Amino acid sequence: MKDKKYIRIGMIGTGLMGRIHTNGYKRLADFWPEYEYRPILQACCSRRAEKAEAFMKDWGYESFETDWKKIIARDDIDAVDICTPNDMHAEIAIAAAEAGKMILCEKPLARTVEEAKGMLDAVEKAGVKNTVWYNYRRIPAVTLAKQIVASGKLGKIFHYRANFLQDWTINPELPQGGDALWRLDVAAAGSGVTGDLLAHCIDTAMWINGGIKDVSAMTETFIKERVHQKTGEKQAVGIDDACTFQCHFDNGSLGLFEATRYARGHKALYTFEINGEHASIRWDLHDLTRLEYFDHDDEGQVRGWRSIHVTDGDHPYMDRWWIPGTSIGYEHSFIHQVADFFHSLETGESCHPTFRDAFETQKVCEAVINSANERAWKDTGVEWVEKY
Ligand SMILES: NC(=O)c1ccc[n+]([C@@H]2O[C@H](COP(=O)([O-])OP(=O)(O)OC[C@H]3O[C@@H](n4cnc5c(N)ncnc54)[C@H](O)[C@@H]3O)[C@@H](O)[C@H]2O)c1
Asked: Where do the GFO/IDH/MocA-like oxidoreductase domain residues begin and end (predicted)?
């Protein structure tokens, strides 16, 4: 124990992501025992004392706060984890950077490019360690897809296709805003499916296939008015309920993306497919352990899509878990991000995606919204430099 270095976490927000990140911190010592750095669950923060206290007790935090500014002001917090709705990311992250804290921020980095730029400048000026929870990169089958593309097995890439389909907002009686439904309030969320769902697809796509150069998008808001939780009045809905866009990647391939919360029958169907000169791969969140792979170089009579069960010891991250052939799940992508973040403290390298990487994703999201609003192609201005 003595040789370990401890990072005291201040968790802000105790909802879905607050829980799943905390689970990640709790697993690190068990599955990566040799790592030099370990988290301590120092403080959690939620606005209502009874909720914050219950979270503290249930998840094993040492203390709680009801004002996030107190977390930032505390000398016994080394890293701030931002798990609040999107409208709070910038203010908290900038304050945390100015206080010299490490920052682990949920996605999307911000509501707008302007907000994201302020955050990026703040962490770079302060020189604090930072990462953004685009967790899908760390599902072993997705990491394997990245490795296969990087190895050149697909050859020249022609197409990148991604969908993220849900169906939970079809009911017109669903209000907007408030604790549970902030995603439907544009002031809190910044955008609808573009920032919530497509941001994930864009992050994965640029990580695997390089920068997105320009976009042509279409959005729709199917339910135009909803009662706002704060006012009790019917108000115009400002988010995009559905969005599709096409794009050019820097490498010359074409991209096609779709996200919606109006695809009856789909809860969280994130899929992508990449078609190259020699081979193709595809992946599906509902069957997240598998990676489908088609290799044109296979002998003709047995050529076909193969389904790789990404559970063997030489698959990404899988040497840490159980035995070959047994699966892990969604929560493990966050555990892997915790592990990579803590390992990066030891190596001194960045834990990608950093604020800079997420800033590039933000540029694509904003270009998508602008393109849809103006019915025009938009350059993204992305400078994608991640090479790993
Ligand atoms: N990486 C992913 O796959 C993923 C998945 C879901 C959500 N997210 C992101 O995580 C963030 C949080 O989403 P969620 O699903 O956990 O939301 P949630 O509604 O479940 O939780 C939000 C939490 O923030 C707290 N909060 C709100 N205002 C606060 C304040 N002023 N001070 C302290 N706490 C406050 C709420 O009480 C709640 O506990 C969002 O940015 C969202 O986009 C990412």
From this structure: 144-282
